[in-house]
Hints:
Layout: H1 13-31, H2 33-44, E1 53-56, E2 67-70, E3 76-80, H3 88-101, E4 108-114, H4 124-132, E5 135-141, H5 142-151, H6 157-172, E6 182-187, H7 192-198, E7 200-204, E8 216-221, E9 224-239, E10 245-247, H8 257-270, E11 282-287, E12 291-297, E13 307-310, H9 311-315, H10 325-332, E14 336-337
Parallel strand pairs: 3-4, 4-5, 6-8, 12-14
Antiparallel strand pairs: 1-2, 6-13, 7-11, 8-9, 9-10, 9-11, 9-12
Helix pairs in contact: 1-2, 1-6, 5-6, 7-8
Amino acid sequence: MTEVTRFPHYHQAENVVTNHVMVMLRMIYRESPKLFEGLLRALCGDEVTVGPSFSQQVAGTHSIPDGLILQEPMAVFVETKLGPHLDQAQLAAHCKTIEARTQGRKGNYLIALTTGEAGHAVPPEVMETARAQGIKIVETSFGALVDQLGALPIHDVDLGEIVQEFADFISAQGLLPRRDQSVAAMLTGTSWQANRDFGVYYEPADRNPKWQRASFLGLYHDKHVSHVGRIAAVAVAVEDETGEMVFEAPETGTLDDARRAAVRACIDAAQAYYPDFQANRHRYYIVDGFTPTALRKTSPGGMMNHRYLDVELVAGTRAPAGAPGSAVAVLLDGKTYS
């Protein structure tokens, strides 16, 4: 067993990336087991428990002890690939190794990190075989890992900077989705109609800017991406004491009177369900118009957070350079993702 280190001796790129991933996970755990637990739950989609549980008056086979502090065994294995594909034979061998190492214990995880989208790399029969061995294979991407790390409520400034440096490292390795082929699928609820009608989406300004990772934005509603638009401009704004919207310098694109008016109209429509939200800083995404599409999620349950979807992987066809949102909506129409 080789201990992970901040100064790895590896030369192979895949081993270096794996080391950095493991160091990042270790730092999150050392900062707070609860943060690490939240990260694993988000990645694995299960109620993973990290650390001991505290109970009292737990009935046993022969008595009822007054108190119990119990820490259940947990094993999380990680496999990384610097591309969108996994080696099926290698995964099967890993499962045999895990089964032997954990002596048949159930509830083990094998996190498979790739540059692709979840649900595209592991055949169902491999998943079933792993489940029979007490192993859940979790397909996820470097992009999803970066997103989940960024969503953690980290209050330590130094650790927050390290998470950003890790994201920069992963990006520099070319492991994040291609921006020109990427759609940021955003959760919408009561605001869906206003977002659609005015071509504007908004989120708190302290969240990671989605335009840095995606050229397109999709509205996720009722288990499918219903509309897609190309991001034309993004700016943070807040309403001042006179009721006027004060826009900061655009993060991307340009603002004109029509785009400012679209933001204002979307805010006015939101007063029915988000009164006075414009008094706080929000990031506003203005698209070239939301075009209807029907990109359906096939796996159980709804999306819990935003997702980056690769147009070429989902549609089987690349989006042309500089394609408008309407063209991508056509490519994705009738397709599915998990």
